[in-house]
Write a structure and sequence with these properties.
711 residues; mainly alpha; 64% helix
């Protein structure tokens, strides 16, 4: 039996240099999609699994750790996403040969990067060389739980058992066979699983079990693999090198022998030159008894029957391989690595997954169209299609484990089929491979909440917030979750806590203040508390226009007859704040609109108008100073005296309005508004100028012109 090359990590490991243990050229993980949060690595390894892969109950090696271990360990703890720090640590521990240091570093590394099958192999070899065979087996078992599709790790596990078990005991052979069965069940449908199948068949041959060897080759003959034709050639050689009764199960042997005899009888009936002694027998003479041995002719004919039956299976499998060959050929890195994949590789995986899912969907549709008598075989095809999709997703998520779009694609495929499998996928993605990708954690929480698992949904968000403290999206999702559950007091406390923790960040503090004020106003029906929150936030961030805007909206949403002064105070506060001139003009316009629509005295209107005019002139003066003398003086003078505004001619009032009343357009900014309330004069003229009682627009009233003197 060929032994596995333990240093060849070129197939599905994360290393490509067979001569060295560690790849010196490794890149950092793809950038996290978290924006505005604290640096993910500052808090150490807070979200990676912490399971130990050494045997329980055994003491670690005593003695001091190597000199530079603490320094290298601290680098990985401070920034667990730096793959270079991990490789430096592991290489140093291996060079020192210190078991305790090696175990500690490998346990921590493999908890974060469990898809690096090469390190599982190195860990098992380390334990075996130290004489801890049980620990070596446990390492392999834990590694295979983390990456069950690793053909190399399965082969390494088998070789480990073959080197440590007493193969003279019958239970040892049975254990090896069980491991092989687990291996082909987990990874046998991988396109690159040929070495595993060959090893299984050759091992059965070494055990002298030729019938089991035939079964193994018959099974792989139905699996689309890279070297499918090689398996078929080996099967043909196997079947033609031994008598049928030595390589076939009793059931198949009886079947093929019966087919041979039936073919012989049929051939006799068709022959025209049958000998007389073959046609008739003397009375009382019986046909010669069968001695259980097959003639050479019978063996040859039965072998031909066996090959003919398997040729059909081979042709079907070849058709499946041809369908997938171009997709497989486009995949250049089927193993895990922290180096980013290029766009072509990501697209190749996406295309392959889409095609395989379409094939499975077609099989499902065929089952629905199949008649009752043929439905059983169609169901098997449908199940096989679904299994192939699952295997391909698992293969993809080895190479693309750091890309959440593939996890999301997997979840969407599984959700209509099995909710528990969806949970497992989310758990692997969020707790192992993507601990700092907040979006997929939010999706997981929404999934659990959607299916009634509220406590789990809350736990997910709480854990995520511990990993990514200060991320507003997570805190808001927690608040919304509590609100939907009817726990307004908890939601309010979460908002207050976020508000208190963000005092050192004025923009974030203003953001939470607005959220809290809206919460108090809309859900708690307490405008006084909402107003207090905004006013306190304005004291901390007097230059944040959104705070004034929300305060103004709050004042205007109440009873204006009882709280008209609140609007004016808010506008006055905004105008006195260190805001930009354009922003102040907007607030001034809203104050002017309010005074016009709801003011109780003309003095309030005139006061707001004077303030607005003053702001406009200041803004125009600054803009003119910036533009220099490039503006046309004649045009500017016309704008100053108001002559640029044209007034439509007066017409007789019609009996019915000919123009519907519409919402006024937004007021102009930056232009002179002397003579009336800015552009309201022309708008009023357009809307109301034709009615008898509104023949003269505001800018035509001489009695108001005395209140609005030209400067």
């Amino acid at each position: 039996m060929a032994a596995e090359g333990t240093d060849d990590l070129s197939n599905n490991g994360h290393l490509t240099n067979p001569s060295g243990l560690y790849d010196p050229e490794v890149a950092e993980l793809p950038k996290s999609d978290v924006v505005g949060s604290e640096e993910s690595g500052d808090g150490g390894d807070t979200s990676a699994p912490t399971a130990s892969y050494t045997a329980e109950g055994e003491e670690e090696e005593e003695g001091e750790l190597p000199a530079d271990f603490e320094r290298l360990w601290k680098l990985t703890s401070d920034n667990p996403l730096d793959f270079n720090s991990w490789t430096d640590l592991l290489q140093y521990c291996e060079q020192e040969g210190h078991m305790r240091a090696c175990r500690q570093s490998l346990n921590a590394f493999l908890a974060r990067y469990p898809l690096c099958y090469g390190y599982w192999k190195k860990f098992a070899d380390l334990e075996r060389r130290a004489g801890h065979n049980n620990k070596a087996e446990k390492v392999c078992e834990q590694g295979l739980k983390a990456i069950p599709l690793s053909v190399d790790l399965w082969i390494h596990y088998v070789n480990l058992l073959l080197g440590t078990l007493n193969m003279n005991l019958p239970e040892s052979a049975q254990r090896i066979r069980c491991v092989f069965e687990e291996a082909v069940a987990a990874a046998g449908w991988d396109f690159h699983s040929d070495r595993l199948w060959d090893l299984y068949a050759e091992w059965e041959k070494e055990q002298g079990n030729l019938k089991a060897m035939t079964v193994v080759y018959d099974r792989v003959l139905r699996v689309p693999t890279q070297f499918y034709n090689m398996h078929y050639e080996k099967l043909k050689t196997h079947l033609t090198s031994h008598p049928p009764h030595d390589v076939l199960s009793p059931e198949e042997y009886r079947k093929v022998r019966a087919e041979y005899k039936q073919s012989q009888i049929q051939a006799k009936k068709e022959r025209t030159d049958i000998a007389a002694d073959e046609e008739e027998r003397p009375p009382g003479e019986e046909e010669p008894a069968d001695n259980g041995k097959d003639s050479e002719e019978a063996v040859q004919k039965m072998q031909e029957l066996l090959l003919a039956s398997r040729e059909e299976v081979y042709q079907q499998n070849e058709a499946e391989v041809r369908k997938r060959w171009n997709f497989e050929d486009a995949i250049k890195r089927p193993y895990f690595h922290v180096k980013p994949l290029d766009r072509a590789q990501l697209k190749a995986w996406q295309s392959y997954l889409d095609w395989e899912m379409a094939e499975a969907e077609t099989a499902e549709m065929d089952v629905e169209r199949t008649s009752v008598e043929g439905q059983e075989s169609s169901k098997k095809v449908c199940v096989a299609g679904h299994e192939r999709v699952l295997i391909l997703f698992e293969r993809c998520l080895i190479a693309c484990a750091l890309y959440e779009e593939f996890w999301d694609k997997y979840v969407h495929y599984l959700e209509p089929r099995c909710l528990e499998e969806v949970r497992n996928v989310y758990r692997r993605a969020c707790e192992i491979h993507l601990p700092y990708k907040h979006s997929i954690h939010l999706q997981w929480s929404s999934f659990e909440e959607k299916h009634g698992n509220i406590l789990e949904a809350q736990r997910i968000l709480e854990s995520l917030e511990m990993t990514l403290p200060g991320l507003a999206a997570v805190r808001l999702r927690r608040i919304s979750q509590q609100r939907r559950a009817g726990r307004l007091d908890v939601a309010e406390s979460l908002l207050k806590e976020a508000l208190e923790q963000s005092k050192d960040n004025p923009s974030l503090h203003a953001f939470y203040s607005i959220k809290l004020s809206r919460f108090l106003l809309k859900l708690c029906k307490n405008p006084a508390r909402a107003r207090t929150v905004l006013q306190e936030a304005i004291e901390l961030s007097p230059d944040n226009s959104r705070l004034y805007q929300n305060l103004l909206d709050l004042e205007m949403s109440g009873d204006l007859r009882a709280n008209g002064g609140g609007v004016q105070q808010c506008v006055a506060k905004a105008l006195a704040a260190p805001l930009s001139p354009k922003t102040k003009i907007l607030f001034s316009q809203r104050g002017l609109q309010y005074a016009e629509d709801f003011g109780t005295t003309v003095q309030s209107v005139l006061s707001m108008y004077d303030e607005h005019q003053k702001l406009l002139k200041e803004h125009d003066g600054k803009r003119g100073a910036e533009n220099g003398d490039s503006d046309d003086p004649e045009k500017m003078s016309k704008m100053d005296d108001g002559s640029a505004m044209t007034v439509p001619p007066q017409t007789a009032p019609p009996t019915m309005p000919h123009v519907p009343i519409t919402t006024p357009p937004p007021p102009m900014m930056g232009g002179d508004m002397s003579g009336s309330y800015g552009s309201y004069g022309s708008w009023y003229q357009q809307q109301y100028g034709a009615y008898g009682s509104y023949q003269n627009p505001w800018n035509q009233y001489n009695q108001y012109n005395q209140y609005y003197p030209h400067s």
